Amino acid sequence: MMNPKYQPLFESYELNNGVTIKNRLTVAPLTIYDSGPNGEMTETGRNFWRDRFAGFGLFVMPFTNVHPTAIGFESPNAIDETDLPTLVEYADLAHAQGAKAVVQLAHSGLRADPKMTRGLGVIAPTGDLHGRFRSMTDSEVREMVASFANAADLVMRAGFDGVEIHGANGWLIQQFVSAATNLRTDDWGGSLNKRLRFPLAIVDAIDAVRQKNNRPDFIIGYRFSPEEPGENGITMFETLALVDALLTRPIQYLHVSLWDFYKKARRGTDSLISFIAPLPTMRVMEMRGVSNRHLAATLAGILAIAPANATFPLAALGLPVAFTLAASTIGGLAAAAATFWIFGRRLSLERHESEAVETVNVSQPSLLTLIHTAGGEAIQSIIGIIPMLLVSLVVVIGLQSIGAVAWLVTALRPGLAVVGIDEIFVLPTITKYLAGNTSFVGLIHETVNQPRFDPHNFWKGAGSLIHPLDLPGVAILTSSGPRLQSTLWPALAGAVVGIIARGVGTALLS
Fold it and tell me: How far apart (Å, rounded) are the C-alpha atoms in residues 38 and 338?
């Protein structure tokens, strides 16, 4: 009899596009070198695949080349019409055995085999000094995006359930993301925003194929490797920016590729304070009897700094992170100081009696117990605030649909013109203060594609927008405990001072 703890593995689940996967057993791509010279199915391959899919909910087919220059080893192709019979055979084998199957679309980049690229050589984001591979031209980069879209179309026509974009393991897409292999100075390299442009363009192009064929059930996944070695290799900071950018696209899953499941992040995870992290800390401070005045100053500092849930995704759009971090630190310190010495001077400096925490035979709760309790309460606070987040977002959408936002833009237009603020930023600002940072970031990702969007002018005003001082943020942070709520008004006043300091400094120095 099966151990009951494994039962969830065999339960079905639904992807965000409504597709049901029969169980949670998923097979990552298998590289078995069983394809013929032109990527065709061989008898060896048929013998291997004929009973390979049975019992699995989702099966990711092996590395499949999207262009002749993609080929680095014996593997299937999705390049042109001649590849359809092999793709159909793979799809039929998978479906006959009851599994959903997606095809991993890939390109080897600088790791391609020059003997297999049909005389087209080896291409990469940036060429090498020895001439083994050359830099792609701008038109070749755009052609490659189209090749991924064409491959997705072939896969769809062959009857597969979706595709997985292979952005991991050092292949072409990762080569574009990494500063170690992408030394370009055009629109496809340089800043993190530009290095992410290639993978995001591929996702958008494949989604366009899905929409063109009216196939919302077609699965799109993305595989990535979180880190690279070396001074200029990918760090978790860049990976989190990539993930946040991907989450603004209509993809169904992310596939993390690691050589060690238990491997820990090496760098890039401690750059900024995240939005959620302060909750247990604030609750621990309250439970341990920290004075109201110190609580208010701490809350003000948190409300004035840049949270990770806004900074990381906006970094993908060109937000100057180092400058934002420096301004955020100054603003947070200014907020805390203003609260402690001015707005909160009437609050008590007396320590409160520590709250009772349920423990076994322990008269004084340990720090570990406090952290455990505070963390649980913080999670409950976040869960409890979700309905308000949804209501806030609905309110924003409602204001826009009834014309209230357009009316406000018209009313503010003269004043906006005087201070040099484009009216295109009115809706994102309303969204930020009513619905929070996550909704704000999503709207900015849409706004950035509008011709009138001026990144420089937006980043000049970013100091006044990238912080948790909004309706959901205040509600979440003050829900950690009753004494935090009693210190809210002095903390808000101090936070405003810190945010103004950040905003003015950012506008003057940008």
Answer: 70
